[in-house]
Amino acid sequence: MSAYIVYVRDRIIDANEFKQYQDAAPAAAVGHPAVPLAFYGAVETLEGPPVDGAVIVQFESREAARAAYDDPRYQAALKHRLKGAEYRVFIVDGLPA
Questions:
Q1: What local confidence, expressed as pLDDT, does residue 23 receive?
Q2: Rounded distance, CA 41 to CA 28, Å?
Q3: Is this model's pTM higher than 0.85 or not?
Q4: What residue stretches are annotated with the DUF1330 domain (predicted)?
Q5: Domain containing 62 — which CATH number?
Q6: Per DSSP, which regions of the chain are E strands?
Q7: d(Cα 73, Cα 1) in Å, to the nearest integer?
Q8: Domains in the chain: how many in total?
Q9: With the C-alpha atoms ordered 87, 16, 36, 5, is the resulting torsion angle positive or negative?
């Protein structure tokens, strides 16, 4: 069953740290097949606090999504994102085929 990592950016707090994350994160995706379904397109917040940006990435399974997130290269990049922006990130399972 497919799974999705959803990244919801609430706000950027340090543009330099966030830029370092943006520069490092793509290399972490190598070896983790995924399909980006939405990538910082226009967002219309319907409920809750305003959303500054959002990304939705599809993986073949929850395990594949978790492996991509836990990859040491992504974890190294993540340190910059945590200093550079406030996000909510979660994995959600897709529907059975």
A1: 97
A2: 22
A3: yes
A4: 2-95
A5: 3.30.70.100
A6: 3-12, 35-39, 53-59, 85-93
A7: 25
A8: 1
A9: negative
